[in-house]
């Protein structure tokens, strides 16, 4: 309990502008501060902190302190700050901010609660320069839990594959060469109180080299830099190419020298001439707060640990970076015109693989039907009139390294005219892509077949490298037979030798072949002079036994009269009922569905289900006459 050393008369109060928080909470074992605000009239008065009318501390006490209590009076801001240290459970209760003037008191009540809280995750901090390890010196790291009830116990552990081993029962870790028995070590600390314990992040040590007399090592706290300096921990460069590493720093480091080092040896500094040393360079961007390290022509031996560093008047800040070297295959080489493609005369084209390990070998080939012929072992193709012996030429280049080879797209040359003195030609690049599934489209009304006319269907693959070859086939039970090598199918009565026919087309280029969907033809009736048939493309809405088609022949009347049509509808209805046809899969029967032949015969093509709807559909053509009454 707090001792009461001074008592005043709580009943002699004067009204004043004095205020604070009514309720405050402190943590067991820690300190708490309470702000007590007052008006200008109270600036010169004595301030105090009391409990149950007993003064605990006053502003005119020596240094404003009594035991665990202290007062600091800030007359400019019009407040005095009370601090209570090392809080105990018995400190909970009612207190008062107060001012005293000639025996008249002004007070404001404050309720204090005491909380028993668990520890927070302990924070790690370097107590000595972390780069002291470069010269074999010791490095100290502190561990502190900033929140939670006191007292707090600390312990340091080394993480091992089998079982973590305790190093010390203090909040300080001391690292030195004698501590290390292998290349990599990991350490962490724990903080605990009567509410539980929590572990810190990891301290990682990477030993660069060690001998009997000394060693050098890198120390890092998890992924957090020991100072306001950070970068990617792991970076990968490609063999033979360059890599850039971004090292970020805070505003306080703008004017300091930046460097890039390996095993504590500086490789390049920002104050070197033009920031260059051999294959290394540094560019310091003070506006963005980063310096960029570039390493060119990477070798296998460049793999290993490096450091971004800042020299602050002899006190170094470092951040370790691990560089890995990758041996990668080439990417697909990219083509680019080095001269205008429409230039009169020669045209030059470069070939470059922008990814993959160096060195890369390039070769140009001309594509021929028999065997591709090599033109050159460079990455540049020079085209001129003397190169051309035929109307069309195709060229491509290859890029290769020790991981494999890839080919570019095709360079296509179309010669317009050529003479002894000059020529004109068109040069273009074409991505070598496979064809897409060819799409079918009616070029003429599909119901033209109802009156015996021809129907034309086009076949086109909208994607894929040109040129594309098209072929039409008829599907037969034995072997599909080729009809034409064009992209158009022309259907006419003379084409049909049976009631049903199926056709499809193929599209192909040098990347492969794809087939279209099926074109189905159903012949409804046929005579010497004419026929009628239905044409359907699987996914195209078309006249599947179309209700809109009107079959006509020279001996047939094209439009039935209404009375005869009504009679035919009645006959058809009786026909369906007599055969127990459950569902007619047609449009609703109308006059247009009847085809009148010599005024006493009607044909109608119907589809129906036999039995229930789960059975398959059947299709037939039914013939009706006046005798069907």
Observed structural traits:
51 strands; 1 helix; 3% helix; six-stranded mixed beta sheet; disordered C terminus; single chain; 6 domains; Immunoglobulin-like; 629 residues; mainly beta
For the record, the CATH class of the largest domain is: Mainly Beta
Total strands: the figure is 51
Mean pLDDT: 81
Q: What is the count of structural domains?
A: 6
Q: What low-confidence regions span 5 or more consecutive residues with pLDDT below 50?
A: 540-562, 575-629
Please give the radius of gyration in angstroms. 47 Å
Category by helix and strand content: mainly beta
Characterise the protein shown here.
The protein has 629 residues and is mainly beta. It has six domains: 6-115, Immunoglobulin-like (Sandwich); 123-221, Immunoglobulin-like (Sandwich), CATH 2.60.40; 229-326, Immunoglobulins (Immunoglobulin-like); 359-430, no CATH class; 439-537, Immunoglobulin-like, CATH 2.60.40; 562-628, no CATH class. It is 3% helix and 48% strand. A six-stranded mixed β-sheet has the order 1-6-5-10-11-3, with no helix packed on it.
Task: Summarize the model shown.
With 629 residues, this protein is mainly β. It has one helix and 51 strands. Helices cover 3% and strands 48% of the residues.
